[in-house]
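Why this split exists: single-chain examples teach little about how molecules sit against one another. For that reason, every record in the complexes split bundles all components of an assembly together and asks for one structure covering all of them. Below is a record exactly as it appears in the raw files.
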Amino acid sequence: MADSGVAALHRSILEWYSVHARPLPWRDPSCSPWGVLLSEVMAQQTPLARVEPAWREWIDRWPTPADLAAASPADVVRAWGRLGYPRRALRLREAAIAIVDRHGGDVPRDQGELKALPGIGDYTAAAVAAFAFGDRSVVVDTNVRRVEARVVTGVEHAAPSLTRAEVELAAALVPEDDKDAATWNVAVMELGALVCTARAPRCAECPVRERCAWNVGGRPAYDGPPRRGQKWHGTDRQVRGIIVQTLRDSLDPVARADLASGRDAAQVDRCLAGLIEDGLVEPVGAERFSLPGHDQDDAVEEVAG
DNA sequence: GATTCGTGGGT
DNA sequence: TACCCAAGAAT
């Protein structure tokens, strides 16, 4: 694409974002880097509409990394609620501890140091650098991949997994100026989330519909490799979810038989072992289980009282 | 590089 | 109803 085309793309999408950006709390200029980091981890594979209420609870309860570092694993897993992938809650706590230990309690600005934190990968490190510190970085999430696949490459869907070419394309499209770069990154993501959606894209509302290769080309159907659907019913993931939900909802340790009643015993055992290995479940005595680091004072008080 | 890892709303 | 898919990371 010619440079003039890239400049026009920048103007169109940045202008669209200035009008249509959602007023998410972590986008407020007063939001701390910690608040931004928290939002990015919560948003991993989770729709923002479900993230926002949880984010407000967390930032109110644990306003700094030091505050979260002092929480118990059981507390953070309960507070995580039903956001999904609860290992993220544990990693967030571990990241907070690392931030206190290695960075004096302040979220680091360097992407390499960010990536060294538990639960922070390429995407999240780039996102925190851009959205918390205003640095120029290359943010490539599922939205960016889809928007650029359509607008530039002319295909409906990006490849099944992130390719080198996609990263290079994204890098080539990020504006040179730091401030424009940070806004560009979030603007493309927002366009993908609100207009250039995976299914039923709203092309009529798109600011770049006239320069989108996929749209101009008649929106040809996807003809790449078959995309694997996510299994759910009967999987270990489902049983793990049931077990953790049971423990989240229980103030007291739970017997093995009550963790996921009605499920195959061998599967429950396998999932339980995995959850213990992951640090999401902790054995209590011989045959009972609880969330990790669960404070037993309540149970003791019940007995004592 | 392919798999695994939750949950719920939209189509 | 069944399926798709969401600001990915770790292994």
